[in-house]
Design brief:
The chain is an alpha/beta fold. It has a domain of 173 residues: DHBP synthase (Alpha-Beta Complex). It has seven helices and twelve strands. Strands 1, 2, 3, 4, 5, 6, 7, 8, 9, 10, 11 and 12 form a twelve-stranded mixed β-sheet that branches. Helix 7 links the parallel strand 11 and strand 12. The longest helix is centred in the N-terminal third of the chain and has 16 residues.
Length: 251
């Protein structure tokens, strides 16, 4: 199959340059997208990623939009490592990633109906809400808001559920460079990662639309919304917000 051929090629490329210190370990997710995963391979991948995160490492992960880099949001040293990895402006915030809507209430002050959250999440959308005192004060210390992701990807949800606190999540690329849809597209970052989880190509790698990332929407003002980034799911997101009576903040 194309999937197996691609995986074999990726593994061959990894083997070519896998020797030497500082080289990330690559773990292939078993095919099946988590619906009927090979229990051993799938659980091993989740456990390996959770272990690397708990040890303070950075892990490359597939999401429902593009490849990301995750660390533990409550680990201040790991958060600093993400900024260093990406060459990222320290004033650009990192989103948090959770496995379930219920956990969102611990880290955010929610002022929209629970049903609205469940209509949007999990999905390719980042919701910006007021942060709670539970969240690491070293994560985005310059803002009282935080973006929250619950990707519609079974590996990411399993990983987030396995970790005790939220993950910090950003795209797997150097800041201002294009987002990535295969693990080979961010090979230059591998030496600084503890682990690379290869879920195969995400979406259509020929399509610019597939690289837009999540739709980012600010819900921190009651009854209103503002679109921070149109992303890949703008129309369905706005339709759901309007269904619940929210209006654009400019109106």
């Amino acid at each position: 199959s194309r999937r197996m051929a691609w995986a074999a090629w990726a593994l061959a490329r990894v083997a070519e340059g896998a020797a030497g210190p500082g080289r990330a370990r690559l773990v292939l997710l078993p095919p099946g997208g988590g619906a009927r995963p090979d229990p051993y391979g799938w659980r091993e991948a989740v456990a390996a990623a959770a272990g690397a995160l708990q040890a303070g490492g950075l892990v490359a992960v597939p999401t429902d939009t593009v490849y990301g880099v995750a660390c533990l949001a409550q680990d201040s040293a790991a958060v600093r490592s993400v900024y260093s990895l990406k060459g990222r402006n320290g004033a650009k915030p990192l989103a948090i990633c959770l496995g379930d809507v219920e956990r969102l209430y611990r880290y955010c002050h929610v002022n929209v109906p629970d049903e609205l959250l469940r209509d949007l999440l999990p999905g390719p959308v980042t919701l910006v809400l007021k942060r709670s005192e539970e969240l690491n004060k070293d994560l985005n210390p310059f803002t009282s808001l935080v973006g929250v992701r619950i990707p519609n990807h079974p590996f990411m949800r399993d990983l987030a559920r396995t970790c005790s606190g939220p993950l910090a999540l950003t795209s797997a690329n150097i800041s201002s460079h294009g987002s990535t849809l295969t693990v080979l597209e961010f090979q230059d970052l591998w030496p600084q990662l503890s682990l690379v989880i290869d879920g195969g190509p995400i979406g259509d790698i020929q399509s610019p639309e597939c690289r837009l990332g999540s739709t980012v929407v600010d819900l921190s003002v009651s009854g209103k919304f503002s679109i921070i980034r149109p992303g890949c799911a703008l129309t369905p997101t706005v339709d759901i917000l309007k269904k619940y009576g929210l209006v654009p903040e400019s109106s």
